[in-house]
Amino acid sequence: MSEIQPQTNFPVGTIVWHAFSIFVPDDFYEPPGWNLVYQFHGWPDKLGTCDEWRTPVLSINIKKNHWKVWRSYNSQKCGHGQQEGVFEELAPVKKAVGPIL
Questions:
Q1: What is the domain partition of the chain in residue ranges?
Q2: Fewest CB within 10 A of the end CB: N or C in the chain?
Q3: Rounded CA gap, 54 and 56, in Å?
């Protein structure tokens, strides 16, 4: 698993690009549950003190042999960790063929 934790705060509206590659071996075994392979770390609201932490705002996962993206959000200042989100299916996982992303 890899996690992005930028040490730089980017001003609102700044375009930032991230690139990476993943190799899935031919004998990859998909364990039950979340198979998160990449995420953008979620941060608690700086304006309040009610959130201890938040789930990743964006993650890439493998579920049922497919790449899926999880996007989560919470528009409340104090979400108490209760975020909504949506999974979007990208493509089947191609094993042992080299980097695909």
A1: 33-101
A2: N
A3: 7
